[in-house]
Amino acid sequence: MALQTLQIRCKNTGRTHRVPVGYNLEQVYEMLDLDLPHGATSAKVNNKVEGLHFTLYTAKDVEFLTTASSSGLRTYTRSVFFVLYKAVRDLCPDAVLRIEISMSGSYYCRVITTGAAGAPDATAIKARMEEIIAADLPFKRITAPTEEAVALFRQYGQEDKALLLESYGKIYTTYYTLDGLPDYFYGSLLIHTSQIYLFDLVTFRDGLLLRLPSASDPDTLAPLRKHEKMFEVFRENHSWQDILGVSTIGQMAQACRKGYTSQLIYVSEALQEKKISRLADRIAKQPELRVILIAGPSSSGKTTFSKRLSVQLAVCGLRPVAISLDDYFVNREDTPKDADGNYDYEHLHALNLPLLGEQLNTLLNGGEVELPHYDFHTGKNTPSGKHLKLKPNDLLVLEGIHALNPELTASIPASCKFRIYASALTSVMLDYHNRIPTTDNRLLRRIVRDHKYRGQSALDTIRRWPSVRNGEKRWIFPFQEEADEMVDTALLFELAALRDEALPLLEAVPEHEPEYSEAYRLRKFLSYLPPIDTKGMPPTSLLREFLGGSSFKY
After folding, report:
1. Are residues 165 and 44 in the same domain?
2. What's the pLDDT band for 5 if we cut at 50, 70, 90?
3. What are 55's strand-pairing partners?
4. Interatomic CA distance for residues 232 and 89, integer angstroms
5. Crossing angle of helices 261-284/228-244, nearest 10°?
6. CA dist 550 to 308, 382, 491, Å?
């Protein structure tokens, strides 16, 4: 009997191939004799990322991925997380591993134990991880009725996963085992532990720092950058979540089922307002401050934050005066160009820095200036006819992506500047081994806002996102630790609030588009979240900037 075959179109070879029906992606990879750096971690199948366990029964388009791609690196990262978890459990069976904070390609983790012996140290855990990797153990993929999976995770003391799966509402659940130890991830894993070729584990603060391959150079570890200020924001947030008992999606869903949705909204909003109020008090106590600089990446909510801070500063007897950096653009023909020859409006030198410096100095020295105006239609910068002179209690507020770049205000004395970095820095976790990247939080905000206010599709927003991210890495992130204050603009409930707005937009991304894989990934983790009614959100909520209904004018 002839072997049944099917057709695949492989992007890696640029050819069409016949492969046996029932082959999994690992077998196909070996059959095609591909030689990708460090091998394939996963693959896009009809533009949806699947693990190499995936079995082919019908014709597909296939692209094998490596750690050089963001999707391939995520598969690798999840697999290292599982090896870390197994190593911790092997050394201390009652331990709970929490993977809490991402810091430039490294992950801060905590090992929590109840026994008198305490948690094993980084050296012992790393040695056990290396043994597990050398043993070439398989990551086994298992599909079972959800109630069985829930019971299994409770048996292993993983209540966070049990609650997540109960709230997810699926009849069947797919999870993984490693040498008999179960774990759950919302994405694919590798086939074998021996595919893990690079990692490190070191002690950091009261926990561990797991280092992984660099996104830009997968042959090397990501640079070890200890973002101390950002780390403190995360730690404070996780402590607060633990006090509330809502640090995972499963716990949030449980709280919502018990009728605590409104309380989550009120407490989250009140906490954020309290922090803004305290920041205003701190600024007001420093009379030498005359310029407030506010920076943050795309969809960080810095515009609404600056407006709310201005309200609190007014309560302190100060008068914030906003200056738009957009009005300091140079004429279009003088704008720097990117590598593709397009005007790069995110470049620092797209701004007329000499004019900005001259006018700021004039204002701070008691003089009067005529503010410029940039016409985005004509690409010309002209005087606006608006004159400004500061009064004794006036504070200049400059908000924009370059606000923390020292070159922007190089002529202004440091003693009169207060620098603020505002972004969605934290997020609730799916469970203790599945973080929701804060970048995804901002991307979802932008997808909803771009559709609501700019008439753009999720496809358009996702397609432009890599360019936006590259601009952030160049112009914003290098200066974030220079801030005098870091402000977390995320709200505990916000992903649930964005859910019903974002899901239909993501579902509209066509399968044939390369961006479908990203849209599908976002849809999948949003589906874990309980939908919530946002009517209880105040009109001054930072999230109103994206969902609508804000009392602020933009």
Report:
1. no
2. very high
3. 24
4. 28
5. 140
6. 12, 31, 16
Beta bridge partners of 372: 383
Q: Are residues 185 and 123 in the same domain?
A: yes
* Rounded mean pLDDT, 278-284: 97
pLDDT score of 169 more than 70? yes
C-alpha span between 191 and 144 (Å, rounded): 19
Average predicted confidence (pLDDT) for the chain:
94
pLDDT tens digits, 226-253: 788 888 888 888 888 888 889 999 999 9
Q: Letter for the amino acid at 503?
A: L
**CB of 199 within 8 A of CB of 212?**
yes
Per residue in 177-194, pLDDT (tens digit) is: 999 999 999 899 999 999
- Residue 116 pLDDT level (bands cut at 50, 70, 90): low
Contacts 24+ apart (CB under 8 A), 537-544: 537/265, 537/269, 537/497, 538/269, 540/304, 540/308, 541/269, 541/491, 542/272, 542/301, 542/304, 542/305, 542/308, 542/489, 542/491, 543/301, 543/491, 543/494, 543/497, 543/498, 544/304
What CA–CA distance (Å, rounded) separates 387 from 363? Answer: 11
Q: Residue 211 belongs to a domain with what CATH number? A: 3.30.980.10
**Token output for 219:** 């042959």
∠ CA(423), CA(426), CA(431), 5° rounding? Answer: 155
Token pair in block for residue 85: 């978890």
Nearest to 356 by CA among 376, 329, 384: 329
The answer to whether residue 309 is domain-embedded is yes
Facing residues of 207 across strands? 204
Last residue of a domain, one of 168, 196, 226: 226
- Structure-block tokens of residue 59: 């014709």
pLDDT tens digits, one per residue of 490-524 = 999 999 999 999 999 999 999 999 999 999 999 99
Asked whether residue 410 falls in the same domain as residue 493, the answer is yes
User: Looking at the domain assignment, is residue 552 inside a domain?
Assistant: no
Helix (H/G/I), strand (E/B), else coil: 419: strand
SS3 content of the chain, % helix, strand, coil (to 5): 40, 25, 35
Within a domain: 286: yes
Quick one: tokens of 182? 């179960």
For residue 402, give its domain range.
231-318+393-547
Contact (Cβ atoms closer than 8 angstroms) between residue 119 and residue 111 = yes
Domain count, the chain: 3
- For 448, phi then psi, to 5°, come to -65, -45
Query: Can you tell me the distance from the alpha carbon of 317 to that of 197, in angstroms, rounded to the nearest whole number?
Result: 59
For residue 108, the cross-strand partners are: 101, 209
Task: State whether 261 and 402 are in the same domain.
Answer: yes
Average pLDDT over residues 95-110: 91
Residue type, 494: E
What is the DSSP code (8-state) at residue 24? B
Tell me the helices (H) and strands (E) count for the chain, helix number first.
15, 19
Strand order in the sheet with 417-423: 319-324, 394-399, 291-295, 417-423, 485-488
46 lies in the same domain as 93: no
Please give the structure tokens belonging to residue 537: 């959100």
Which token pair is 255?
């709280």
37 plus 107 within the same structural domain: no
**Helix (H/G/I), strand (E/B), else coil: 78:** helix
